[in-house]
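Can you make up a protein sequence with its backbone structure tokens?

===
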Amino acid sequence: MPWQLVPARQLGTHAPAWDALQRLCTDTPFLETGFLLPLLQHFGSGREVLALHRQGGELTAAALLQPAGAGLGGVGVMWQTFQPSQLPLGPWLAAADADLHGLASSLLAILPGLALGLGLTQLDPRLHPRPADTAALRTQDYISTSWVEVAGPWDAYWEARGKNLRQNLRKAHNKLAAEGRPLRLDTVTDPTQVAAALAQYGALESAGWKAEGGTAIHPDNAQGRFYTQMLQQFCAAGRGRIVRGWLGDDVAAMDLCIDNGPLVVILKTAYDERHKAVSPSVLMRHEEFQAWWAEGRYRRIEFYGKTLEWHTRWTAQERVLYHATAYRWPLLRSLHERLRGRRSPAAGTAAQAPAPAPAPATTRLRPPQRCQSCQAKRLRRPQRQANRKAWPNVRRGRSTSSRPAKTPATARGTCGWARSHCQPACTWARASSTSASVRCSGRLCRTTWARSLALRSSS
């Protein structure tokens, strides 16, 4: 039998084989046993299993799995890859050209219990090309993530960044220089200094929004113990670093990073919200990236988090991570999708209740066609000026008698209501309300719904 299942606590015993396969299949340092063993120790439930696939005595695929709950209708068991929030990708190792569906199907056949499905979570298409959906395999988008290619001279990379980023950074540097507290950078790589540095990191997180959710790193919680143990191991191997940005005597921003040589992953970032006026994390990242360019060690910088607005300031490159679910039989996929789409019991009960009588027509103030998402805010300035000339009276809330008989097609939004009274900059953000006093959120339209309806009926 190609697949072998053993308790996940035996991962240390199989660490040489796992790490050898990891180096062949991926370049992500967080899929090494140096990351996974502390993760299992602090966040594992004890029910995890290690799956090993061998051919000809060689390890060709491996995974860390955990039961994900009861199967469809309470029958059987669903399984998935071990996926605590600290792990950016699912622990699934296989060659890029391996048959993902074939491996998952053969693994399903030997999983404990009546395994009906296996979820492979947070897969990277760079490492595992996304397969086409089949009758027994379903894939779905997870998040878009970004990365930076360290290539070419630093000046060329920096000049390609947005004008606003460069100007804001220059202003922040000038402001701090005038105050006599320019940003300075240092990097912790000594394993003996990791605990103290993580205490500083935890203080930054605890002073922000993460303290409310209880997810901030602290020396006494599982988060703090895991990151301390993991980063000490990576720093001892020369592949971990904690980057700190200082403003005077205060640590203003920090990055937790691990690497495998040419690829570095920024696992976590925190900053002191007291200094947010000068964007300390942006200042730190600028100095950090510039130092990495000069060092010449890295070829790729990975974020492995959801692409946010600040990521787009540093790179335009992104890709979509995905989930894959393999079902034991093709019928289970359609049944699973039907169950997922079924309403909750509360909704079903409400649906069986008698429907309320419709309101009288005189109280229904919603226009027949409401502008839900007018995209005309994206029009260029000359186009907006042309629109104002086309609708001079509607824009001022006066009679529409002088409005041109035919509205220019370029002045219309993406809805039918835009052809009547909705101005190009109008979004009708609260179009679901039935109140006549709700005003349009557009910058040009200043009439209430009741007035708009009256104008529409008079035309």
Residues 262 and 298 are 4 Å apart (CA to CA). The two ends are 78 Å apart (CA to CA).
